[in-house]
Amino acid sequence: MKKVMVINGPNLNLLGLREPDQYGHDTLDTVETLCMQAGDKLGVAVECRQSNHEGVLIDWIHEAGREVAAGAMLGVVMNPGAYTHTSVALHDAIKGASVPLIELHISNVHARESFRHHSFISPAARGIIVGLGVKGYAIAIDALVQVTSK
After folding, report:
1. CA 136, 140, 143: angle at the middle one, nearest 5?
2. For helices 135-148 and 28-42, what crossing angle results, to 10°?
3. For the chain, which end, N or C, has fewer CB atoms within 10 Å of the first or last residue's CB respectively?
4. What CATH number is attached to the domain comprising 63?
5. In the chain, how many domains are there?
6. Is residue 23 flagged as an active site residue?
7. How far apart are CA 23 and CA 96, in angstroms?
8. Where in the sequence is the active site (predicted)?
9. This prediction's pTM
């Protein structure tokens, strides 16, 4: 069974506590359960990871790229959090690892502060899911399966 890696970036471990008006009341555990259920329906294994550290996220993208090249993984669904707007390094890792990636945001970043309107990740992503709440994770997993199916 092929895998999908779901990567959550900084502060997503605070889901359910941090700005619930913006991000809702679901916790990261709830999101991970939702992702596993989506994977079960689609016949793919889902591996969820979260880190507040940019270098760790880069290492995971490199790992995913190796697994995609080996035929064991379809790609990555990633909510890069605030690194979306700051990290050229994540952009370069995605491009360098040649990993199919769906960028995901729980909130509609385009309806928020102007500094959130630019993404360094989007130009390297196969697609983007924005503003659909935590339900966007299942949609992103489905989209990744669809765009990587041959």
Report:
1. 140
2. 30
3. C
4. 3.40.50.9100
5. 1
6. yes
7. 31
8. 23 (proton acceptor), 105 (proton donor)
9. 0.94
Contact 10, 78 (CB under 8 A): no
107 pLDDT above the threshold of 90: no
pLDDT tens sequence across 62-102: 999 999 999 999 999 999 999 998 899 999 999 999 999 99
Comparison of pLDDT for 118 and 124, the residue scoring more = 124
Expressed as residue numbers, the domain containing 75 is 3-148
Planar angle of CA 66, 70, 71, nearest 5 degrees: 120
Kindly tell me the sign of the dihedral angle through the C-alpha atoms of 96, 56, 13, 21. Answer: negative
The first and second tokens of residue 72, run together, are 């064991």
Report whether 66 belongs to an annotated binding site. Answer: no
SS3 73: strand
- Say yes or no to pLDDT of 112 above 90: no
Annotated catalytic residue, options 91, 105, 110, 117: 105
Residue 5 identity? M
- Any binding-site annotation on 141? no
Is 137 one of the annotated active-site residues of the chain? no
Annotated binding residue at 92? yes
Q: Which residues pair with residue 76 across a beta bridge?
A: 5, 101
Where is 79: in which H helix or E strand? strand 73-79
